[in-house]
Design goal:
Strand content: 25-35%
Oligomer: single chain
Largest sheet: 5 strands, antiparallel
Structural class: alpha+beta
Order of helices and strands: HEEEEEH
Distance between the termini: 27 Å
Number of domains: 1
Length: 90
């Protein structure tokens, strides 16, 4: 990985740190299935959801009772590309 690419990646990761800290969860687990293009984010340890809600943008919110226990992002690379276009003013 070239130095410029490392710096860009580090900058992107550091930009999400405040959002992660604001969640105030003890543990956040992130898993990306490249083949399925699905990003899984679990709060605390992975747990079985008792309910879920699919948003219009392809994000699935997973609940255990009334507590949000995870987020599943379908077509994560497409969502990332769309977000990058918005950030770049396209």
């Amino acid at each position: 990985m070239a130095k410029t690419e490392i710096n860009e990646t580090l900058s992107e990761i550091l930009s999400i740190v405040p959002h992660i800290l604001r969640l105030s969860e003890d543990r956040i687990l992130i898993d990306y299935d490249r083949e399925a293009d699905v990003l899984y984010i679990s709060f605390k340890k992975p747990q079985e959801a008792t309910d879920s809600e699919m948003l219009d943008n392809g994000v699935l919110l997973r609940y255990r009772e009334d507590e949000l226990v995870g987020i599943t992002i379908l077509e994560a690379s497409r969502m990332f590309a769309e977000h990058a276009e918005i950030q770049n003013g396209r």
